[in-house]
Amino acid sequence: ITFPITNPKGEVVGLSGRTLNPKDPVKYINSPETEIFKKGQLLYHLFEGMQDIRKSKEVVLYEGFFDVISSYAAGTKNGVATMGTALTMDQAKLIKSVAPTVVIAYDGDKAGLSAADHAIPVLEKAQLKVEVLTIPEQMDPDDFINSYGYETYDMLFMEHKKDPYLFRYDYYKMG
Fold first, then answer.
1. CA distances from 32 to 24, 36, 37, 165 (A)
2. Secondary structure of 79-129 in HEC code, one letter for each residue
3. What span, in angstroms and rounded, lies between the C-alpha atoms of 10 and 87?
4. Residue 99 pairs with which residues in a beta bridge?
5. Quick check: 3 pLDDT over 80?
6. Rounded Cα gap, residues 96 and 13, in angstroms
7. CA separation for the pair 1, 91 (Å, rounded)
8. Interval 120-172: pLDDT, tens
9. How many Å apart are CA 52 and CA 39, to the nearest integer?
10. What percent of the chain has pLDDT over 70?
């Protein structure tokens, strides 16, 4: 599957291909880094989600394409993704330019929780209000939606959203 990557103006600046074969050693192949395609300066679905982002005054930040797509189908249309990379200050500033609040909705596994922990100070430095959505059962948002449905996913935003302090308290307690 090939995903077009747009800049904040809606111009296609790169592509990302993902295999659906779990046996393939490489899951993603991206356009090479160029003057116009720098993954650390872009967010997947930012331009396309702009209307919903501005309306909700909130960005939901995911790790990958399928999380954004499944969440969109579930009714959460203000999602963007870092495309599997660690969040950069440039990306945090992009979010700040379109909304005052961000909900980190990374995968519920150890790597996703660690990435959320590392993203919090970057987002706070950009002066964003930060919340963290914890996905149960170490699932990613896409798997959770496919397993439990849209309504259950929607309920997560009411029952599993934490401020950074509570998220970190629970995360560090896990060891």
1. 20, 10, 7, 37
2. EEECCCCCCCHHHHHHHHHHCCEEEECCCCCHHHHHHHHHHHHHHHHCCCE
3. 21
4. none
5. yes
6. 21
7. 24
8. 999 999 999 999 999 999 999 999 999 999 999 999 999 999 999 999 999 99
9. 23
10. 100
Distance (Å, rounded) from C-alpha 45 to C-alpha 58? 14
- Contact between residue 113 and residue 171 where contact means Cβ atoms under 8 Å apart: yes
The CA-based dihedral angle spanning residues 39, 45, 46, 51, taken in that order and rounded to the nearest 10 degrees = 170
* Tokens describing residue 12: 């296609």
CA pair distance 126, 24, nearest whole angstrom: 37
| Phi/psi of residue 135, nearest 5 degrees | -95, 120
> Residue 141 contacts by C-beta under 8 Å, 6 or more apart in sequence?
62, 67, 70, 71, 105, 107, 135, 153
For residue 111, give both structure tokens.
Answer: 């790597």
169, two tokens = 């308290």
pLDDT tens readout for residues 48-96: 999 999 999 999 999 999 999 999 999 999 999 998 779 999 999 999 9
Q: Is the pLDDT of residue 112 over 90?
A: yes
